[in-house]
Specification:
The protein is α/β, with parallel strands linked by helices. The protein has a nine-stranded mixed beta sheet with strand order 1-2-3-5-4-6-7-8-9. Helix 2 packs antiparallel against helix 3 and helix 12 crosses helix 13. The longest helix has 21 residues. The protein starts with a helix and ends in a 5-residue tail after the last helix. 41% of the residues are buried.
């Protein structure tokens, strides 16, 4: 009996140690650089040119939108004493509907959309829309490329305030940043796949091919939300091309990370400094908040087309669905405010600008499909979070981001983790909420990445 108990004890203790320290990482999956996602008939006449593009809000679209906004049914009143705890407070709908239908300056905002050069090019059958901003630099200043990726329910509009800060020429830097900011496939003005399978790993290949199409064989990447996942995968798939990876959202599905998280629940100082304990523990609070905020994820990972019908047909429904995320993902305490805190951090016209990216292009359904194409058995079976990448990495973690992991937990994935910036402010939409802090952190990361390269006697 004693021997049986000893064997059981060794198994219980040995399994975690094996998973953490001894188990070999899985191999890289096979990568198909030419996988086709567009209509089959376009394959034979594939146009690889890069064409200028401008946003145009048609009069017909605006007229239809205003009519739909004004013709809505009466909203069901909220429960007494409830703010945003049950979702978007219907008492707030009238002011938002009035603003979008009667006060939002469509013509002026269209000009804002077209402030920076935009283009389209067809990658693997998908028309990919992107903003490209190249700074004018004096002699002796090098231009370096940065791919900047958004997430859901955001868009390229997330980076509007950060663009001039990121591309500014400074006497303190020997480089300036050229930005390439694409709309994800099926988002905004980028076309969607016509067949199943375009998960985040496949999108990573699309954007690698975009950068190569534009002449960039080596470049930096930055992302949050889906952008964080996709750029993470790009660094894993193409470490010889990615010069540095910066992200403002870190999480991991690796087994060892989960084990460390559980271990820390017993005694938090084992895994996280005391001033940051509340960002990880107690697990009941953290996972409770994730459950509270992730109902949308289950819907979009299983039945995106069903919910897409209502959001495609009703602009007021789209508004409530998306702005509720901008409320509580910016600051969780905004749930207790009757107005959801909307407009307090991100301006009203910016929030509607982002809605227009979905409404004007009828892309809400196709954007949500990215969840069902990624959060499935095929993708998780790749175990990409357990494959180390040597790419220099820099993370910034906002106070109110949905998840937090201390940098050391990510070392098995990113052995060349250069820095971890901890912010005492900011939330999920960091580039919109704190554009100066966001831009400064990205530029500091590139400075550090370049310094590492120079010390290794390599060139950009």
């Amino acid at each position: 009996m004693a021997r049986i108990l000893l064997v059981l004890l060794l198994v219980v203790l040995g399994a975690p140690l094996y998973l953490i320290f001894l188990k070999s990482p899985p191999p890289l999956p096979e990568i198909n650089l030419d996988e086709w996602w567009g209509p089959e008939q376009l394959r034979l006449k594939h146009d690889t040119s890069v064409k200028p593009f401008q946003v145009k809000f048609s009069e017909a679209m605006i007229k239809d939108l205003k009519e739909r906004l004004k013709a809505h049914r009466p909203y069901v009143p909220p429960l007494e004493g409830v703010a945003f705890e049950y979702g978007f407070n219907s008492k707030q709908m009238s002011s938002w509907i009035k603003y979008w239908a009667e006060e939002y300056p469509f013509v002026e905002r269209e000009k804002v959309f077209n402030k920076y050069p935009q283009f389209k090019t067809n990658i693997q059958g998908l028309d990919i829309h992107f903003i490209r901003v190249k700074p004018e630099v004096p002699a002796g200043v090098q231009t370096v490329p940065l791919l900047l990726l958004h997430g859901w329910p955001g868009s390229v509009r997330e980076f509007d305030a950060a663009i001039p800060l990121l591309t500014a020429v400074s006497k303190d830097r020997d480089f300036a940043v050229e930005l390439i900011i694409p709309s994800l496939p099926g988002y905004g003005f980028s076309s969607a796949a016509v067949r199943p399978g375009l998960g985040a790993d496949k999108v990573a290949v699309v954007f690698r091919n975009l950068m190569n199409r534009l002449g960039f064989k080596k470049y930096y990447v930055q992302g949050g939300d889906w952008g964080a996942i996709i750029t993470n995968i790009m660094a894993t798939f193409f470490p010889q091309e990615i010069l540095g990876y910066h992200t403002n959202m870190v999480f991991s599905f690796a087994t060892r990370v989960t084990l460390f998280q559980i271990l820390g629940a017993i005694y938090p100082p084992l895994v996280v400094s005391e001033n940051l304990v509340d960002r990880m523990y107690p697990l009941s609070k953290i996972y409770g908040n994730l459950l509270y905020e992730s109902g949308y994820m289950h819907l979009q990972s299983t039945k995106p087309d069903t919910i897409g019908v209502g959001l495609t047909d009703s602009p007021s429904g789209l508004l409530a669905y998306i702005l509720e995320k901008f409320s509580t993902w910016t600051k969780p305490e905004f749930r207790q405010r009757p107005d959801g805190g909307l407009g307090a951090v991100i301006k009203k016209e910016q929030l509607i600008d982002n809605l227009m990216m979905y409404w004007a292009t009828n892309s809400i359904t196709t954007s949500m499909r990215l969840y069902s194409e990624t959060f499935n058995k095929r993708f998780f079976g790749l175990k990409l979070d357990e494959i180390p990448t040597p790419v220099p990495t820099w993370i910034v973690q906002a106070k109110n981001e949905i998840a937090f992991l201390p940098g050391w937990m990510l070392k098995s994935k990113f052995p060349n983790l250069v820095n971890e910036t901890i912010l005492d402010d900011g939330g999920h939409f960091l580039a919109m909420e704190l554009p100066r802090e966001f831009s400064s952190d990205v530029l500091n990361a590139i400075v550090a990445f370049r310094a590492r390269k120079q010390r290794a006697h390599t060139e950009l």
